[in-house]
Amino acid sequence: MSLSSPHRLKIVSLLPSATEILCRLGLQENLVAVSHECDFPEGLSHLPRITRPNIDPHQKGQKIHNDLISLIQKSLSIYTVDTEKLRTLAPDLIVTQDQCQVCAVSLEDVEKALCQISQASTQICSLSPHCLDDIHRDFLRVGTATNKLIEAKDLITEFWIRLNAVNSKVGTDLPGRPRVLCLEWLEPLMVGGGWIPELVKLAGGEPLILSKPEKFKTLAWTEIQQANPDYIAIFPCGYSIPKTIEEIRTSKELRENLRHLRAFKQGAVFIFDGNQYFNRPGPRIPDSCEILASTLFPQKFPSTFEKHQGKSFVRMELQ
Q: What DSSP string runs through 103-132?
């Protein structure tokens, strides 16, 4: 059910991709609070941050993973919602997700918070992106909940036009496509699932280990060695490029195992800004696809490669 009077809506967004969707639908001025991770587009810095993580996100990946597992095993929330701020703001709509309890505040956490503050009139729009079609459907969900359905349909059209434009340059199922391994976490090693295999195919590559939308998969270095990828894309969930580089720099195991792979010897290991692009199931997924394609086929996307090199991706080097 949609909400009436969209120009007077007070909206809280609890995940970065939802914030980007809302802003693309022309609702940036309706936002009254966002999550601690919402950092795009510009112009959000004045908004209250209504969530915080219950672990230290600045520690190393293995420690983050262990702390997350510990919280999950104890049935504890990974994020805290500031219920007092929520009570004061009294939003008409909260946009959250029920796809991954690790990625952002869960639907269950939001429902508990609303019960605590007796905000029965607040509606919840919960997103659940597992593949590209789901992202498309999430645009519609947000558009329906905010009376911005026309804008949402326009966004969907642009989304697919841009993805198909990338694919039209590189082709699909052509012989000799680069075999691509996407790593979404480093300690332990995890292969990117969800929409990532679809993006690799659209960008002209052949995804390894996971070839269709599935949950991420934990694997060992022996499996990577056996897969023998032509190309490795590294974008740990929520990590910037400097944080990923530091993670690799301070781990002898990571450095040594990467050093012995054919992809590294051929200069085909790239670190991407996953936090801004690949990990966010929102309007910039076509950007992610084009950035990936530009590193696979720089001669076909020279302007994209030049624009994003050093900013959105770097070629990995080991000292």
A: TS-BHHHHHHHHHHHT-TT-EEEEE--SSH
Q: Contact, 132 vs 163, CB < 8 A?
A: yes
Token digits for 225? 């060695």
CATH of 6-155, one of 3.40.50.1980, 3.40.50.2300, 3.90.1150.10, 2.40.128.20: 3.40.50.1980
Q: What would the pLDDT profile of 8-20 be if each residue is shown by its tens digit?
A: 799 999 999 999 9
98: its two tokens: 């029920």
Domains 6-155 and 177-315 in one fold:
yes
Q: pTM to 2 decimals? A: 0.91
pLDDT digits (tens, 9 = 90+) for 203-238: 999 999 999 999 889 999 999 999 999 999 999 999
Match domain 177-315 to its CATH number in 3.40.50.1980, 3.10.20.30, 2.70.20.10, 3.10.450.710.
3.40.50.1980
